[in-house]
Automatic annotation (TrEMBL):
Domain VOC span(s) in chain numbering: 4-134
Species in which this protein is naturally found: Thalassotalea nanhaiensis
Lineage: Bacteria, Pseudomonadati, Pseudomonadota, Gammaproteobacteria, Alteromonadales
InterPro entries on file: Glyas_Bleomycin-R_OHBP_Dase, Glyas_Fos-R_dOase_dom, VOC_core
Name of this chain's protein: VOC family protein
PROSITE patterns (UniProt xref): VOC
SUPFAM superfamilies the UniProt entry points to: Glyoxalase/Bleomycin resistance protein/Dihydroxybiphenyl dioxygenase
Pfam families in the cross-refs: Glyoxalase (PF00903)
Superkingdom classification of source: Bacteria
Length: 144
């Protein structure tokens, strides 16, 4: 089956703040937008931020966490699976503006099926993001 782009829409507390974080800092290009939402191109996927004015200017999305490989993984979270070289470059880029990673970039399940680079961080509204990578996506993405 050929992969097709996903579409996901999340809530944010401030549209200009989302534009700065996803557009200026993360480098995602902007598509259609209004004063209430922005479409971003997240590595070929349609990632949309929608204003939730009930959060207020300082509000945050709440998450729970579940243990994975000795870390508390936030739920829900969103992100992209990348090839390993691109992930390493992206990890260096986000390290220039993310001060507090939820889980710093590292390789989990090392030496096991599904070995992967992963990192978790939050946007300013508290939405948790994961970017992960495999050296051989076709063989490792769904490895047991």
């Amino acid at each position: 089956m050929q992969l097709t782009p996903f579409h996901i829409a999340i809530q944010v507390r401030d549209i200009d703040e989302a534009r700065d974080f996803y557009g200026a800092k993360m480098g995602l290009s902007e598509g259609r937008s209004s004063e209430h939402w922005i479409d971003f191109n997240m590595f070929g996927h349609q990632f949309v931020t929608h204003l939730n004015s009930q959060l207020g200017k300082t509000g945050k999305i709440t998450n729970i966490s579940n243990p994975v490989d000795g870390h508390g993984v936030p739920v829900p979270h969103y992100g992209v699976v990348m090839n390993f070289d691109d992930w390493e470059i992206f990890a260096k880029k986000v390290s220039t503006f993310i001060d507090d990673f939820i889980i710093e970039p590292y390789v989990r399940f090392k030496g096991e099926p599904g070995e992967q680079g992963t990192m978790f961080f939050s946007d300013p509204s508290g939405n948790a993001l994961e970017f992960k990578a495999f050296k051989n996506i076709e063989q490792e993405l769904f490895a047991k």
